[in-house]
Each structure stands twice: as structure tokens, then as C-alpha cells.
Amino acid sequence: TQLADLKTLARQLHEAYLRHFHLSKAKARIFLAGKTSTPPFVIHDLDTLQQAQQILATHMQGDEKDGLVSALQERETESRLFRCCQHTSVETVTQLTEFAKAVPGFANLDLNDQVTLLKYGVHEAFFTLLASCMNKDGLLVAHGKGFITREFLKSLRRPFSDLLEPKFQFAMCFNALQLDDSDLALFVAAIICCGDRPGLANVSHIEFIQESIIHALQLHLQANHPDNTFLFPKLLQKLADLRQLVTEHAQLVQDIKKTQDTSLHPLLQEIYKDMY
Amino acid sequence: LKEKHKILHRLLQNSTSPVDL
Question: Is A134 in contact with A169 (CB distance < 8 Å)?
Fold first, then answer.
């Protein structure tokens, strides 16, 4: 019975993941491989960034709130791209919140604990999902309609040039594990339902949910990747790597906010405030 | 926590609502 329950949990989380995250890894890999009728528009310098404004704006007519379009209307390149990054973060946080609510047991937790789990978990989950949109050369943007090269991002002035390069380095190691969307659904749920976030009230309840997810993940990996014996321990190690990545990211964002003439979205301000 | 995380709180309590940039 327990085995059947864990399989059901894996299925439920996979379904919730496909329901709430618009760009699955499977779809992103098709875009990255150029196997779509309209390949992504490649942004590799200032000229192509300007062109993206027209091209992507045409693609997105009727979507007035799209961050890429409004961000591209800003004057400075770095500010524009920083705003694009924020837009993607905010969009992903809203998707992750809906996904979290679909994790069995999450919605019954104390509301303050739900807030704490999201505050500490969303960026780790975001960088996990971002890896699906990355290859060694760049990053898919605007729901797969654009592709920004890694070299262009590295050529920005500091500190903006430091924003995404560590995420590329993480993504290259993480993508080497060759997880699919069903594996990622369980991994992202395990990131969110984590019993050792600071300030949690009901740790035992969260640990109970987390243990089920981790157990379901272990069984799912055995079935889905039977030849990769060490995949499960490798993936647990990635949880520690993600925590380090987020700590450094939060510091960098605070530095950008203090030293650059840029604003930070109120939702991201809430998350970063008193985080680490 | 509720006071300091009003938007997260709102996202948790409501179904998906747009978060404007």
C-alpha cells in the first residue's frame, strides 16, 4: 500500500507540475534544439536586443503586462535585462506558489509556515527550473520566443555580468544528470517542503510531508533511471549546492539594489528581506 | 510574517492573481 501511495504522490506532483509551469523541460529542449517552426530570436548584442523589442512585442500583442516588452522600453541595457530577470522570477514565484498548494498536505500547514517555506524555497526551485531553459551557450526567454547568449550576459558591466553566470555553471552540472519533468516535479516539491528553514513553527508536520516526497523521489529515480545508481545521492547533494547559489544570489541582488539605480519588485523585496 | 510578506500571503490565499511588475 505504501508503495502505491508513493507512486500516486509522484503522479500527482508530475500532473501539478505540468499544470502550473508553462515551459516544461521537454518543451524547452525542443526550443533549444531549434526543432520548432519558429526558432527563438537570438539576442547576442545591443542591436539584436533592440530588434527583440520589435519582434517579441509583435509576438506578444495583447499581453500588455509582459515584462520583457515593458523592460525593453527602458534606456540602459543592464537595467532592461535586470528587469527581465525580475519579471521571470516573479512569474515563476507565482507558478511555484500554485504548485506548492497542490503538494498534498502543504495547504493544511500553518499559513506562516507556508510563507516561510516559499520565502526560502522559491529561489532554489527557480534556479532548478531555470536550468531546463539553459544550455552551455545561453538561456531561453519570453516563453521560448527568445534566446539570450551567455557571452552577451557576461559582457554586461559589473555587477550585472555576475548575475547569471553562476546559474549557468550550476545548470551545466545539473543538466548532466538528465532528469525529466517527472523527476523535476518531485525534486522541486522536496525543495519547497523542507523542514529546516529558519523560523518554522510545525517542523514535524513538514518533515512528514518531506519524507514522503523524498521517498517517492528515490523510488521514482530507481524506476526512471535504473542504470544510474548514484542519481539519488547526487541529487541530494544538489540541494546543498542550490542553497549556496541562493545565498550568493541574494547578496548580489542586495548589492545591485544598493549601488545601482534600479528598483526591485515588491514581491522580491519581501522574499529577500531578512532572508540570510 | 503576514505583515512583512503581504504579497506572498495574498498569493497563498487567493487563486492565481496577476502580480504586476
Answer: no
Question: Are B8 and A86 an interchain contact pair (Cβ–Cβ within 8 Å)?
Answer: no
Rounded-to-integer distance, Cα A111 and Cα A26, Å: 33
Q: Are A38 and A56 in contact (CB under 8 A)?
A: no
> pLDDT tens across A12-35, in order?
999 999 999 989 999 999 999 989
* pLDDT tens string A222-243: 999 999 999 999 999 999 999 9
- Check A115 against B18: CB less than 8 A apart: no
From chain A, pick out residues whose CB is under 8 angstroms from the CB of B9.
Answer: 111, 115
The reply to whether residue A65 touches residue B20, judged by beta carbons under 8 angstroms, is: yes
User: Which residue, A82, A118, A254, is CA-closest to B5?
Assistant: A118
Query: Where would I find the beta strands (DSSP E) of chain A?
Result: 41-43, 134-135, 138-141, 146-149
Q: Mind telling me how many Å the CA of B15 is from chain A's nearest CA?
A: 8
